[in-house]
Fold these 3 entries.
Entry 1:
Amino acid sequence: MVSQPEQLSRIVERFRSAPRDLKVQALLRYAQKVPPLPEELASDRGSLEQVHECQTPFFLATRVDESGAVHLFFDAPPESPTVRGFAGVLREGLEGSHWRDVLDVPADFYTAMGLEAVVSPLRLRGMGAILVRLKRQVREAVSPDTG
């Protein structure tokens, strides 16, 4: 099995072992944990990438600092708690992780969380697209010959 950052593994395990109704509550809690965009991104929305596969307007940006740590920035409307909750899971599970660890996260890691019990297949596809875009941005940030 491909490894993933420890904090993300802990979140996945908590969701996996939670009953259906607690999964919904947990997603709502993670939705509340998504911080507002920093001023430089909020004032320059063109620096965010839209994830068109999401049913709701969802935007993201990633940064890789000089130590190789990944920083994640998400913008999703509060009235979209499931996708915003997934963003919160990604932020809590990956923020500050080394870029290699982020790129090693399995594309379908969230299936182990049992989210199909509480999230529609269309929203699950959107969640997968968020991770694909996030990883592509990280890859472009660390590979000078891409982009």
Entry 2:
Amino acid sequence: MGFNITFKKSVFKDLKRLSKSEAKIILDKIDTEISKKADIHPQLRGRFKSLRKFRVGNYRVIYTIFDNNILILRIVHRKDAYKDKK
């Protein structure tokens, strides 16, 4: 089953913070891995329980699935993935 992928606007800001090569690797992985097998990746727990995570190197892709669509919410370094913004 293939999924339709959309990105939250803030994801483009996340990608601009990365080098072009890192951003390309992450986008390629989203296209090959998440678009085909989004429902096999682990769900988060606690207050983020409706979200899923996918690891690409030192980065996390945080997304949600609804119907046949995927909404990419964040692309962030693993150490900062679950911290509150202050």
Entry 3:
Amino acid sequence: MQMAKVIGTVTSTVKIKDIKGVTLLVIQPVNSKYEPLGTPIVAADNYGAGVGEYVFYSKSKEGAMNLPIPTACVDAGIVGIIDSIYCKD
């Protein structure tokens, strides 16, 4: 599980049947200091995250586990919305 910031949405007129009704979001992976890591990716969202929110996401098979059809073919999926983070230094 990794952390990311939602930076956009994806509009798709045609989807495979396994992810119909599932929102696709553009997320930017970040570290614990909210600094960007790598390039943005597209993740399936079943929780209703919005642009500007921080989320947890998983890649590969684990990313699809929270979708209505857990065997859906997605590269990444949002597994939770982050309310707050506390890091003790």
